From TrEMBL:
Gene Ontology annotations for the cellular component aspect, listed alphabetically: cytosol
Coiled-coil zones: none
Domain Nucleoside phosphorylase: 405-658
Top-level taxon: Bacteria
Transmembrane parts of this sequence: 102-123, 129-162, 290-307, 357-378
A biological process from GO: L-methionine salvage from S-adenosylmethionine
The keyword Transmembrane helix is assigned to this record: yes
Classification lineage: Bacteria, Bacillati, Actinomycetota, Actinomycetes, Micromonosporales
Keywords per UniProt: Membrane, Transmembrane, Transmembrane helix
Molecular function GO labels: adenosylhomocysteine nucleosidase activity; methylthioadenosine nucleosidase activity
Record's keyword annotation contains DNA repair: no
Protein name as annotated: Nucleoside phosphorylase domain-containing protein
Amino acid sequence: MNPAEDGQVSWALCRAAARSVRDTEFGREAEAVVRPRSTLGVFRTRGPLSLLIYVAARDGRLVWRGPGSFALLQPPADARRRSPGPGLGQAVLRRIVRSWDLFLFCTPIAVLFAVAAVCAVLFRATGQRWLITAGLLLMVAVLSYVLIMLSCLVIWGSLWFFREFGRRARGSGPIAAELLPGTRWTLAFCHHLDAGRPELLLRLVQQRLDRLLRAELDRVAADTGVRVKDVQTTESLVCLRRGVTTGPMRAAVAAWSDRGHLFAADSDVTVLLSDHRPVRAPIRIFDRGGFLFWYLSAELAMVALLSRDVPRWERAVCATQCAGHPVTYWDAFTWLAQRLLFTDPYGLGPASRQSWVIGWLVSLMSLTGLLVTVAAINQYTRIRRIEMNALAEGFKIVHDHTRTLIMVATAAEYEAVVRAVAAVSDVAPRPLVLPHQVVTELGAVSRTKLMLAQVEPGTVSPGAASIAAAALVTTLDLDFLILAGICYGLRPGEQEAGDILVSTQLRAIDDRKEIDPAGTGQPPLPREGAEVARILATTEPPPGPRTVLIRGDQVTPSTALLTRMREVARGYDQSPRVHFGPMLSAGTLVNSRSLRDELLKLAPDAVGGEMEGAGVYAASAHAKVDWIIVKAVCDWGFGKTDDFHELAAANAATFVVRAAEQGLLDDAPARGTI
């Protein structure tokens, strides 16, 4: 079992993993991505890398193969509030890691205050004057520390302001790297030293994301009182390039996750799109304006510091007539706090000029802060809204691809489709393992996502087209289903081997009724079985050919696909030629001259025949998916050889892929409309 599955990665292993990261070419840069600078500029917002790994393992977000191969998944900002944990200790440790800057800021203050309080208690017990001196020095140290931190906040904030607003507009990649990790699950950190086997870690990353989302759904479902069995993960995974520690692994992550080509090739972010189409984008509130807390804290700290000097100025002026003046620390603090509202407390006002000036400066600080806060919030929300809308449109465009499944029945047909797609796309085929079928994802051509499934020949076996198509049309949420490959031709005078046949009608000829030759006049049979057996033993069957009545469906494929295939055919001049007409579908492999002639008599206008079309039609009819058959002639229904299999399969595959390349599969008609 993977030790990270149940949080059993030890502290020693976490430290070894952190040391392994620092020895890589991009280790420091990747660590800075997962541990960015805080608003103070002197601390990191997250704890040390070894502690991050340790906490992530216990939260289930660590994908672990060893100290030299692991990855960290980061949930959306709103999901962090719901992070599970094994107990109070884990919750406290998680809070420390996620608020590392606040922990480092508050801990020295708390320690100094605690030591000062101990000095005060000991002074009352012993009367040693050096204890009160030490306590006062500790308080001065606290105030100095706070002043230094506030200065760092101002300096770092100023640098950020000039860096953000003083340079040219950035592209969508840097903006996405900054914003997307707060709104979607993110591969924030990835460390892998074995350059030859990156796919193992990446496969575990995708499996872990599915598991985390399913676990969260199970918790919600259990609280709601329901149980969910069939789950499709629609979450997209954001991958940060700068969070990967080695060059080869950066290239592997980009190739694995950038199938949608949402951003430029050298972008800081790529997105692993889900195999399933989302109903809508998740609603997540990730920015609650927490930076205002720091501004208000700075104002409060300034009032607290100035309240130390106001009493001294007041006592120097008022001498013995100090009633109604802020001559104590609390009175000074109360007076300055109300000056933030441009008023003085009742019966309390300054006597010295210094205090009067400071009071008005505090009021102006409040007014300026209010204006700056309003302007910052408006600017921040406006820019972020525009940027997020642009990113959302990008996701919508990519997810708005239609989904086309090409179904084949032989290995030669499968390879022909893969080669045809590879000729127009640089995306490597990727297997998608479903419960009862493996589908090959071929990538997007124009604006349709092409998928390929190989089924068993015929229509009645468990792996045949009828069963497989019925499962896939619903599981994959298809827009188009195209049956491609090889068939037999019925018009050798007009057709040549390799010519393409497109069905204008499908005739399912397996469902038939056969009766004795017409005019035989057979009398009704007796009811007794013995008498029937005597008749069979003493008489001959009626002479002549039987009468065959086809009772199967005769259906028209999708008119949308049919018209689009006619558009593709207009680009074919000589060889191969494209023929449109009815096609016969039966589970029988036809290699008989007499059977071929019989079929042609039954359907004299048919252009060819094949074995899987009836199953595809039946499944598509239930799911209301547009379907069509595009196959090429490899023989004539007798004297079969394999000489033209590859040629016919290649021609049919090229024809289908050309339809996608020309954008004819980009838009699917709305179901239920004309």
